Amino acid sequence: MAVGGKERRPLEPQGRPRRVCVVTRAIGPGDDDTATAELARLFAGDGDEVTLLWVPGSDVPSSEEVAARHREFEAASVRLEVLDRSDQLLPSLATPESQSAALLHYLERSGHDLVYAPLEGGLPYYTLLAVETGAFAAPPVVVIAQAPLEWAHEADRAFMGSTDAIAVTYMEKYCAEMADRTICASAALRKWMLSKDWKVKKAVVTPLLQDRIDQAGVRSSVGKQSSKELVAFAGWHLRDGMTLLCDALDILAPTAPKGLTVTAFGPFGKIMGEHSGGLLLRRAERWPFKLNMVPRANLAAKLDYATRAGALAVIPARAASTGGAVAACIEAGLPFVATNVGAHAETWKPQARQPRLVDADAAALAQAILAALKDPPRPLPIDSLGQCRQSWLDTRNVPTPAKRRRIHKGAGSSPLVSIVMAHRNRPLYLKQAIAAIEAQTYDQLELVLVDDGSDLDEARRLLDVLEPTFRQRGWKILRRPQRHLGAARNAGIRAAHGELILFVDDDNALFPEAVEHFVRAMAISGADICTAFQLIFYEDFVPGDRADGLIQYLPLGGPDTLGLIHNVYGDANAMVRRSVFAQIGFWIEQPGYAMHDWEFFARASLAGLKLRPIPKPLYWYRSKPDGMFRTSNWYDNRLPVMEAFKSSQFGDLGQLYKLAIAQNTAQSEIESARENLKYTPANRKYLELCDVEPNSDAAMAKLAAIAASVGRPDTAATLLGRPQADERRDPDSADVGSNTLGFDMLRGARLLTPRPSPLPLLLVAPDGGGVFLRPHLEGAVAASLDHHFPPFFRKIEAIVEVAHADAPAMDFALALARPDRTIDWQQDIAAQTIAFSGWITVKDKFVRHPLVVMLHARRKMPLSIVLAVRFAATPNGFPTNAFFRKLTLSG
């Protein structure tokens, strides 16, 4: 592939192509995250051997989808792999930590020369942590930053509502700071990182790659006198500006050019709880424009549509970290109007002959759109793609950073390591733990075994047997009265000689290389404390094969914000510098307390000491029902941790405050747009849409039905992928999205007047047949639809019909009643109900008659709908087919 006039065929020193791994979290046809896929194609076209690694998380794609993607990238000489599991973890990669650990395990076996990974989600976290602790000689890792989670929450004006979100923000910050190269999609994003005290001064700014689009439609649009279509480049987040665009279109509506069309695209989501497609359709009820809604399209598809339609693009974002849409419109020579937020300002180029960007204000945006519609800008395509591609090709030249070459002072030495082990009455486990220490590959160590008052004969005899061997090796056995775990460990610290102290529980077993790994990690990282991953097992004897164990606990090492909620630091089997105890004190000695490690690590981290987990299993961890952790009380375990935070005067409480607010604020307040739909009966159809998965087939069908019900069959057609619908509508046609009660609701009808009858008095007919009631000689027959009249509605209309040629005349009635009120059908019905239609006599057959009930004032509670029939005169013995064909609610 020729780039910039040069033929590039990068080769490794061994003469083979460079092996590049590009990691991506999303790779669907509607995903805007196409930059990573484009990057894979670019490198493959330049001679690299490229693997595109798809990490979908818990949402594992179907085999058909994977096969389709394989074929797509195979054509570009890119190998696609899906990372949806790791043989060292539980099957589902359901958490950010498990996804990051799975990537580390993959890279350890893959042999790539260079790795590109998205910052978002913190995927390379454990890989970079493994580099820092010397657990993995990883290839250089380049992190690409587009929209970090903390930035996204701020831009969407939302607090983080989960501990997972806080964990991801911690992982993302670490990745941005520790990557061999961090690439920001914009200077605005880099500036934001620096404002948050991220150490990214050396981060480079390189715009994201964009797909090339067919330019055939662009030239045809340039010569037009005016534009007749707006294309909205607005996603479903609040920051994307859909509500701002709607506000602008409200202002524009009275003066808009005749015949204007507005086109918007999915995928859809929720804005303040409301379905974003429903939001647009609801707001469009006051616009004279034609509205197209295409269910799913990525940026390339939107550009292609806009260029071929000769449309004006509108980019109404309230915040932007990439400027990708503006850059793509300039690249395509597509006329556009955009807000001047964030990265948009640095992406806009005056030489492209585009209007200046406008403030994120509805009036300013409306004025700019109107001006551009009347006098469309004559865009001049700016070919910046070639320069952008060359910039990305140059990012592969990553020198081995100093931090990888640097060896911490003393890293080449072999300091004495004191292993401190507390023991009480577990001789079988103790023998296995000591055997594991004897098998260590690191020889500069001593074992200090502290017996905490063992009173079993077998345990005492074992200690007697061990004494001579310990003396010969210079190891120690301390026999003490029982003072519990913390006191035993502290006694071991005081008796130890090593500068590095490794705590090992007597029911666990170190891997042979464990001490060596711990010492290396402490030296290379400069950490004060190193914890490590573990393989868990449940038996009395240590497994012989590590393949039999799984990593189930994935400590991050921070942040302290989460350290108050759960132990993010690691297990007690950890290495600690002796100087740490002089700084923060010893282990807590409170009897019956099972979280000594959590409390100790929290104190250390809060004091500013450096703690790093080694993301590699270094020991077997035995889990038993009678273990201290499983037999202690969680409440008691957390009190000392809380005291540690209180004593440290922990000041970084911002995220905890936000978490507490987010988790304890009423959902109705967080989802205020959805809540507001309850107060206008005409919006009830949009409220129902909010409860459906936004991009499901059911949501598309419901959205299309709503569009048809509000007189927009053209919108319904585009949502369903059909040709434009006829503007004429059948007023009697059933409509799923209207306020007409469907079969699923009608079949809940309950008979209020049970009377002896050989034939059923109440039936509900499917397929729009309605509710059938059979009059009775003893009086009225009535049925109730309990709680089916929603709050804040005012009107209900029934369409009634006598559907038999020989049937006698019948009376029909309709009422609204309190659900807890029993009606006496021998008394005045109007006095017992909130609203009553009165009895309406129907004599003609097969003719539909309206029956209406109207409330004088809207009620804030649901009411029951009551249907009733009776003979108007003496029955003639013929069938009495009395139907309530349709029930429609309105405001």
UniProtKB/TrEMBL annotation:
GO molecular function annotations of the record: hexosyltransferase activity
UniProt cross-references to Pfam families, sorted A to Z: DUF6212, Glyco_trans_1_4, Glycos_transf_2
All residue ranges annotated as the Glycosyltransferase 2-like domain in the record: 418-584
SUPFAM superfamilies to which the protein is assigned, alphabetical: Nucleotide-diphospho-sugar transferases, UDP-Glycosyltransferase/glycogen phosphorylase
InterPro entries given in the database record: DUF6212, Glyco_trans_2-like, Nucleotide-diphossugar_trans
PANTHER family the record matches: GLYCOSYLTRANSFERASE (PTHR22916), UDP-GLCNAC:BETAGAL BETA-1,3-N-ACETYLGLUCOSAMINYLTRANSFERASE-LIKE PROTEIN 1 (PTHR22916:SF3)
Annotated protein name in UniProt: Glycosyltransferase 2-like domain-containing protein
The species this protein was found in: Mesorhizobium amorphae CCNWGS0123
Phylogenetic lineage: Bacteria, Pseudomonadati, Pseudomonadota, Alphaproteobacteria, Hyphomicrobiales
